[in-house]
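Hey, I was hoping to borrow your eyes for a little while. I've been staring at a protein lately and its backbone has me curious. You're getting the sequence in one-letter code plus the fold written as tokens. Would you mind checking whether the tokens look sensible for this chain? Here's the protein in full, and shout if anything looks odd to you:
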Amino acid sequence: MSSHRKCTFTKRPILSDEKGSVQLYLAELTQEGRASGKVKILDICESIRATGKIDELLYEMESN
């Protein structure tokens, strides 16, 4: 069975047997800091997590 997910950062497919990959759900916030009901889904592959740079990549993504 193949996966249809792609890593948000590398754009490479995430295989179904890749145990180190994660999927993050980030809530969009209003100006008041409340959840707006919108969610951003990030698929992060094992190789990005292994580099230890995920925090930096998330920060850069949200800063732009």
Notes: The chain has one domain: 1-63.
